[in-house]
Each structure stands twice: as C-alpha cells, then as structure tokens.
C-alpha cells in the first residue's frame, strides 16, 4: 500500500512534465509506468515541436504569430478542435520550447544561434522547432533527468489494473508489479492519466508495442466517457515493410513523394501545399495512387530526398537515414525511401474539460490519452509534443489548485480494490480455455485496419463491430500456460488485449454513428463534411455492459468553419 497526494499513470512527456510541476509546488507525487520512462513512446517523436517563435520568416518575409498557429491548427482539425483549448496551446507554445531549453533540451540551431524551425504539413509558416530528427528523444531524456534529480518516485514495470473510485470521486489505483507478481494499492487525492495512445489495435502502426490504450480502457471501466474516438490519424510516410515512422520533417526539408511513373502526384491533390498538405490529405492521396495502380508493387510510393544533398540529410535527418539503411537496406542519399501510410496517432481519448478534468472528481488526463480537443478531426505534425508539454504543465497546475480541497481517501476502498484485482488475475491464471490470445489480437488488428482504416463504409464497419463483439466473447476463454503472477508477460498481454477490445468497440461505434467525412474520418458512403448535423464531439460511455453514444458542442470563437483548400 502506497500513499501520495498525486499519482501520475504514465512516464512519457506529459506524465514527466506534470510530475515536475507538482513536485516543484511542494506536493507529494509519484509516477507509475509499465516500462522504464525512457521506453515511453514519446521517445519516438521525430520531427519537432510547433511554436510561433518567428525565427524563420514566412511568405514574403512575414513573421509568425500564435494566431497564425491557431488558425492552421483549427483548419487542420477540420474545425472540430475546441478553439479555446487551441488558443491556450498556441499562446503557451513559445514559452514551452524555451522552458525545455532551460531544462536541458538541445535544439538544432540556425547560423545566427537562434532555435531552428522548419515547415510542416498544414502550416503557413516554418514554425516547427526540432532537434535533428530525434526531438522526442531529446525532450524525454531532459525531463527524465529532471525527475531523477528531484528523486521523484517512479514505479516502473507496474501495470495498472484498475482505478479506485467511490460514487463521488477517484481515490487511487491498483497495479501489478511485473517482477514480483504482487498487486500494489496506491491511495491518492488526485490521479492523472498520461498513458498515451491506442495505435496497436491496428496492424500497420508507427506506435510502440506498449500503445494499447490502457488509460482509455481504465477510464471506460470507471464510468468516464471517451471523446472523438473515430478520429484516428494515419501518417502518410511509414517505412514499407516495418511501418517505422519516416518523419514529416523529411518533407519539410524538401522531400518529394513520387509514384511509379516518377510523378510528383501531390501536385494533383494539393497544388498549393504539395507534399506538406495535412496528414489526412496526403495519406488519402497515397492510398488513391495505390488504388489506381500507380504505386509500386507491394503497395507503396517513394519519398525522394536525393536532391536535398548528402550534407543536409546527414545533419538534419540522421535518424531517418539510419532507419532506412538498417531496415530497408537503402541509403536515402542515393535512393528513394519506400513508404506507405500507417496508423500513427489518436485524436480521440478520455473526455476532459479545458483544465484536464474528467467527469469523475479526482481523475485528470493529459497527453495523447486525453481529448482536450486541440486536434479535432486531424492533428497537425509538430503539435503532439507541444500538447504533452503544455497540458502536462497546465493540468498539473489545476491539480495543485484543487489538492487542498480534496480529502485523503480512506484505505478501505483501495484494500478492496487490491482484493478485487487479485481475484480477477487468479481467475485468468486458472482459466482452462483453449483459445489463443494472439489469434484474437491478430483478428482485431486485421478487423480494425480493413474496416476502420483510411476509407470507411457503413456495411463494412457494421461487420467489423460484429467481429469485435465476437472477440469480446471468446477472449474470456483464453488460457495462458504460465500459472504464476511474477514475470508473466503473457498475462500482461492478455490484460492489454481485454482493454484493446473495449477501445476498439468505442472507435467502431463512434465511426458508424458519424455519417459524414471530416479530417481523418473518410466515409465513402458519406463523402462530404456535414457541419449542420456533425459539427459536434462524439462521446462514448459504458453503461450496463453497453456502449452509449451522445454528443457535446464544439467550442468555436476565433474562426468559423470554411472549406479546407490546400
């Protein structure tokens, strides 16, 4: 049994930034992570972090502003982003970049010594600050060093099995320690979810294997709704065969997409912004080229960097060059990179207000697992690291503000939660069913990718939802060979799979009910955006064993919806 004022679940950028803020305010805090924090998926963020520093001039020498950043973000979101949250993020962006620098992040530099910035998709200015093509790696190591310097407790390789709640509020959580196979109880006045995305419900994904939607599943089970789960981003350029991310920064440096005829096909789909159109536009364009037999055999196109030159590739894209050589056997200095779209990001997540609060008092969320809705229907590249750092800090500030009004919870509830978790795990361990969990996971991955991918249609999605329901039934008949709790990775994979099936159901139901096309959600049977009926957020909540859909309004204010032309 452990007792802290604040418990943060997740050791990525959002969780670590929040931990620093809470600790520095004199509040007792601990971090729980199912991997060492340096293995969090934040470490894989490559291209950069948006901020209107204005270090590189825009068209005709114009200087970037936070309002320009906000406009690009809202337009890129297909007008589903909440504009009050977007304003906060874009106003706070320059401060957050400088703050990371002061903490120790080493940014790439211009010749004049200022932080370098490069263009990213859907942006009217070169506003993406970067550390070569390892920006997330640099930022995560910086925050981890700061957390260690402060000796903030980190419970690593702990898998959270449940959130503890009474009828009024969240009072802590339970977690399984991998190494010893013991269930721990954590008593807390406030719990912050910072668990990342759910990309591994798809079979072609840039996401780490740990991105299984654990936080979203925990929230559903605790009676907290998920928001906008139908909006799943497919990155246009992942390495063919492995789906390792090839950063948008490669196109920001001048890379061009080519079909098998050698044509720069984005001239046809987005004549104004070409290869730097928003990700949903570029991903659909690549899929269209492949469907029209203009892709290469095996369903890919090429990303050509050769004209950039060896010196610039080695300086600004060293990681991409290394990935290409190691995993594709080609050097982008000499040969184009084979790329195809792959699942990359989750715009939807745990429903929170502008302060990161859920409907359950004491439970907060930040980062990719949350939907404060700064991304709406489509996230712009460079805004994800920004969101984690900005709202990791601001949601922590809200927790600090609230903490004195939250009483210390009684131990009895957490003790009961420990017992419940133990019984649940023992039941799984002792199961004598015949089903193989990895067959179910493969079925889930295939279903999500074929029925809920870049292009969607109602009859296919209904079939996919039915398949998900069947998988939910048979997962209870899975048997695992290892009957011990300690070091039982098969057990962890099964716990993840149970949660993934609930998350997948929320994606499916949300997508079926949204009868329009918006951002990353492209319906071939409803090809147009429908602001009259669907300029609203989708909410999904588990009630009496069923998923119930409702809606909430989008916060407008600065920019009225208009046609997206790139």
UniProtKB/TrEMBL annotation:
Domain of life: Archaea
Membership in a protein family: Belongs to the FAD-dependent oxidoreductase 2 family. FRD/SDH subfamily.
Residue ranges constituting the FAD-dependent oxidoreductase 2 FAD-binding domain according to the UniProt record: 6-385
Record's keyword annotation contains Ribonucleoprotein: no
A GO molecular-function annotation: flavin adenine dinucleotide binding
Gene3D superfamilies, alphabetized: FAD/NAD(P)-binding domain, Fumarate reductase/succinate dehydrogenase flavoprotein-like, C-terminal domain, succinate dehydrogenase protein domain, Succinate dehydrogenase/fumarate reductase flavoprotein, catalytic domain
Residue ranges constituting the Fumarate reductase/succinate dehydrogenase flavoprotein-like C-terminal domain according to the UniProt record: 442-566
Broad class of the protein's primary localization: membrane
The keyword Flavoprotein appears for this protein: yes
InterPro entries per UniProt: FAD-dep_OxRdtase_2_FAD-bd, FAD/NAD-bd_sf, FRD_SDH_FAD_BS, Fum_R/Succ_DH_flav-like_C_sf, Fum_Rdtase/Succ_DH_flav-like_C, SdhA/FrdA/AprA, Succ_DH/fumarate_Rdtase_cat_sf, Succ_Dhase_FrdA_Gneg
Cofactor dependence: FAD
Active-site annotation: 279 (proton acceptor)
Cited Pfam families: FAD_binding_2, Succ_DH_flav_C
Name of the molecule in the record: succinate dehydrogenase
Annotated organism of origin: Methanobacterium alkalithermotolerans
One of the protein's GO biological processes: electron transport chain
């Amino acid at each position: 049994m452990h007792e802290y004022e604040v418990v943060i679940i997740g050791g990525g950028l959002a969780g670590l930034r929040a931990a620093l803020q809470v600790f520095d305010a004199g509040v007792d805090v601990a971090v729980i992570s199912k991997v060492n924090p340096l293995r969090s998926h934040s470490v894989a963020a490559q291209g950069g972090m948006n901020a209107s520093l204005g270090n590189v001039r825009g068209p005709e020498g114009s200087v970037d502003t936070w309002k320009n950043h906000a406009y690009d973000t809202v337009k890129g979101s297909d007008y589903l982003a909440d504009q009050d949250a977007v304003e906060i993020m874009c106003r706070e962006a320059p401060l957050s970049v400088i703050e990371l620098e002061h903490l120790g992040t080493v940014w790439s530099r211009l010749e004049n010594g200022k932080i370098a910035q490069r263009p990213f998709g859907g942006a009217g200015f070169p506003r993406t600050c970067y550390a070569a093509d390892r920006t997330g790696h640099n930022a995560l190591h910086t925050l981890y060093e700061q957390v260690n310097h402060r000796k903030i407790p980190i419970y690593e390789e702990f898998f959270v099995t449940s959130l503890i709640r009474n009828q009024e509020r969240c009072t802590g959580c339970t977690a399984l320690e991998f190494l010893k196979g013991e269930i721990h109880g954590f008593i807390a006045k406030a719990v912050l979810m910072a668990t990342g995305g759910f990309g591994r419900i798809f079979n072609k994904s840039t996401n780490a294997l740990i991105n299984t939607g654990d936080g979203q599943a925990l929230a559903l089970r605790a009676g907290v709704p998920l928001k906008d789960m139908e909006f799943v981003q497919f990155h246009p350029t992942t390495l063919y065969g492995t789906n390792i991310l090839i950063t948008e920064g490669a196109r920001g440096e001048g890379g061009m997409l080519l079909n098998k005829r050698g044509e720069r096909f984005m001239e046809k789909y987005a004549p104004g912004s070409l290869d730097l159109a928003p990700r949903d536009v570029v991903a659909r364009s690549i899929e269209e080229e492949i469907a029209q037999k203009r892709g290469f055999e095996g369903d890919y196109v090429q990303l050509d960097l050769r004209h950039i030159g060896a010196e610039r590739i080695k300086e600004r894209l060293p990681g991409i060059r290394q990935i290409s050589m190691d995993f594709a056997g080609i050097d982008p200095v000499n040969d184009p990179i084979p790329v195809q779209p792959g699942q990359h990001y989750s715009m939807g997540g745990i429903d929170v207000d502008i302060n990161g609060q859920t409907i359950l008092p004491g439970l907060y969320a930040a980062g990719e697992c949350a939907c404060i809705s700064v991304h709406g229907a489509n996230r712009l590249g460079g805004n994800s690291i920004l969101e984690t750092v900005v709202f990791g800090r601001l949601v922590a500030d809200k927790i600090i503000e609230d903490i004195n009004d939250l009483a210390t919870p009684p131990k009895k509830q957490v003790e009961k939660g420990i017992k419940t978790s133990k019984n649940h795990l023992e039941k799984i361990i002792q199961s004598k069913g015949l089903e193989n969990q990895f067959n179910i996971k493969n079925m889930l991955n295939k279903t999500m990718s074929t029925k809920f991918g870049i292009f969607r249609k109602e009859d296919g999605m209904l079939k996919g939802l039915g398949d998900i329901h069947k998988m939910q039934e048979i997962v209870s008949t899975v048997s695992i060979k290892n009957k011990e709790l300690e070091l039982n990775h098969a057990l962890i994979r099964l716990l993840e799979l149970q949660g993934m099936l609930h998350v997948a159901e929320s994606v499916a139901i949300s997508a079926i009910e949204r009868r329009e096309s918006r951002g990353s959600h492209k319906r071939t049977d409803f090809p147009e955006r429908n602001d009259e009926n669907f300029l609203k957020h989708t909410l999904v909540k588990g009630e009496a064993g069923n998923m119930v859909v409702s809606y909430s309004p989008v916060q407008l204010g600065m920019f009225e919806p208009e046609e997206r032309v790139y």
